[in-house]
Fold DUF7041 domain-containing protein.
Amino acid sequence: MTDPSNLAPSGPLLPDVSSRPPDVAVIQLRLPTFVRKNPHIWLAQVEAVFDLRRVTSKTTRFRHLL
């Protein structure tokens, strides 16, 4: 009988990353100036910028607003 520990692994050695969206290490955003008179409009504009730049992480969104 063949010892299973001597057999080469079957299948790919690396995970298939083609089905995952690429990770972005750095992103630069230009957020609108905060307007005290209409914070709802400002927030909608900020959310639009995040959506256009595909920023989905809540942590990343929070840190951009700091």
About this structure: Helices lie at 39-52, 58-65. The chain has a mean pLDDT of 80.
